[in-house]
Design a protein that fits this description.
- By secondary structure, this protein is of the alpha/beta class.
- The protein is built from 24 helices and eight strands.
- The chain has an eight-stranded parallel β-sheet with strand order 1-2-3-4-5-6-7-8.
- The two termini are 27 Å apart.
- Bound molecules: zinc ion.
């Protein structure tokens, strides 16, 4: 498999993780319009202190420094113990698990073959200048959400393909990923062009010898020549299409072409083309538009909300509409605590509740919610509201219409998000008060649906033909076996696709 990632490229990926870096943890969260979590709340500070304390006591007992402890299953468990101790028992996790590597490892091993289909992932083009996402990863590390990012200085390289590959297919239990993008009025600021997504998909699947990556084509109603662009993109056979109703989410100052999903004259042309090309799933970015953003860009507010979803879904029953981030408003500069406060006062969360009411209001069954930042931005900051939102979506759309997407790698390897859903339960009093159905076991029927079953149905993927398990494993599965056997931080780690051993100790 040489030629996929070269030895030099692999070498470049890991040293920062292994070196005892002189760079201190960033002491200030740099604010970004995109996905950067807000400054730590008092509770998040408690979580971080508890987490670091466990690393220093339990980890030390296990002969591991902080960074290595965080790379273990016990370190992952410690993260959820810290959350429980701060917010109440919302996650299935125990101190015994954090203190007993064998116990934590056994649990991780028992779940690692779970079918996880993540239809919302990103990496950035090689010539990107979107440094905000670097700050995002640093902030997530600093907030203690993703233990593997604690103490790890981030660079633009972490957002590019090689690290994406490692974080998705080696560091997490993700089996299939869809590569997405985001458009901009400034051509070089597209995360990836439609061509780049198709190239990445084809390269990955060729190297895996199996279907491990799917791809979006982005559509941009109102941009010059947008329909021709979409038609050209559809000819290259993406698995689904995705649009941003605010027009340009990356550079909102430049957004000149916002659009509505139910615009019969404009957007319906895209749906027509999609149907013609056999596309079934239309993905739309919604939400992530807190009050501060609305004040700055009032003309985009209605486009960011979900008021246009119902009519489009009703008019196009042959299509499925997958609303990314579940329309969750309080992220990208908002605070999960605001969502929790809103829920406690009103029993609603903007605009997740509005989305969840669409089936009843419009009599439709083709509206889905991707969990994306809805989950990532709340589950470690105010996990009660994550639980509430899962309940709201499950009750309104049905748990068979809640689909897994992580928005990785903006918040690092998605393994912590996977573990968060595996361990999350809606508190009993909340279940009773609002009529929410419990989520159940990590690998119980509801969570299996959310992690993979629902997406498999949407994308017509035959789960009985999985290539990541069984006697005829594909190359990625073999590579991951090897990777896990050696341990992510051990010396002489061999990848299936490099010719010789890589001596990780050379960097320490
Ligand atoms: Zn995204």
């Amino acid at each position: 498999m040489s030629g996929f990632l070269t030895k030099d490229e692999i070498n470049e990926l890991n040293p920062s993780e292994l070196l005892p870096h002189a760079t201190p943890i960033p002491t200030q969260i740099v604010s970004s319009d995109e996905y950067t979590p807000p400054p730590q709340s008092a509770q998040q500070k408690q979580v971080e202190a508890r987490l670091l304390d466990m690393a220093d006591t339990l980890g030390k007992h296990q002969g591991l420094d902080r960074r290595r402890f965080f790379q273990t299953a016990a370190g992952m468990a410690a993260g959820f113990v810290a959350l429980n101790e701060t917010f109440g028992n919302i996650f299935e996790a125990s101190r015994a698990e954090a203190a007993t590597p064998a116990m934590a490892q056994e649990r991780a091993a028992s779940l690692k073959d779970q079918f996880i289909m993540d239809m919302h992932t990103h990496f950035l083009r090689d010539d990107t200048r979107l440094v905000n996402f670097v700050r995002s990863r640093e902030a997530v590390g600093k907030a203690g959400w993703n233990p593997s990012l604690v103490d790890k200085p981030q660079t633009l390289e972490d957002l590019k393909f090689n690290n994406y590959f490692k974080e998705i297919y080696l560091d997490s239990d993700t089996k299939i990923a869809l590569i997405s993008s985001s458009p901009s009025e400034i051509p070089r600021d597209w995360f990836l062009t439609n061509e780049m997504m198709i190239e990445a998909r084809d390269k990955v699947n060729k190297e895996a010898g199996a279907r491990r990556m799917f791809a979006h084509a982005i559509f941009t109603p109102g941009y010059d020549g947008w329909l021709e662009h979409l038609e050209g993109s559809l000819a290259r056979k993406p698995e689904s299409i995705k649009g941003y109703t605010v027009g340009d989410n990356t550079n909102k100052d430049e957004a000149k072409h916002p659009w509505r999903m139910d615009d019969e004259k404009l957007t319906y042309k895209a749906y027509e083309l999609a149907v013609k090309h056999g596309i079934k799933n239309v993905c739309v970015h919604k939400g992530l538009f807190p009050r501060a953003t609305a004040e700055k860009y009032p003309h985009l507010l209605d486009y960011a909300a979900v008021g246009d979803v119902g009519k489009a879904a009703k008019d196009w029953p042959q299509l499925n509409f997958v609303i990314y981030h579940g329309g969750y408003r309080h992220a990208a500069g908002g605070r999960a605590e605001d969502g929790w406060e809103e829920f406690q006062k009103t029993g609603r969360v903007s605009w997740v509740s509005d989305l969840a009411e669409i089936p009843e209001k419009f009599g439709v069954t083709n509206v889905y919610a991707d969990v994306g930042q809805l989950f990532a931005q709340s589950v470690a900051a105010a996990p009660q509201v994550s639980a509430a939102m899962m309940g709201i979506l499950g009750k309104g759309l049905g748990y068979d219409r809640v689909v897994w997407g992580t928005d990785a790698v903006w918040t690092g390897s998605p393994q912590w998000q996977i573990e968060a859903l595996r361990r999350l339960e809606i508190p009993e009093d909340m279940q009773k008060k609002y009529g929410f159905k419990p989520l159940g076991a990590a690998d119980g029927p509801l969570k299996n649906m959310i992690f993979g079953g629902n997406n498999a149905k949407l994308y017509n993927f035959d789960v009985s033909k999985r290539t990541d398990i069984g006697p005829n494993k594909d190359r990625f599965a073999l590579m991951k076996d090897q990777y896990e056997k050696n341990g992510p931080a051990r010396s002489n780690l061999r990848y299936g696709y490099v010719s010789g051993p890589v001596d990780w100790n050379a960097f320490a």
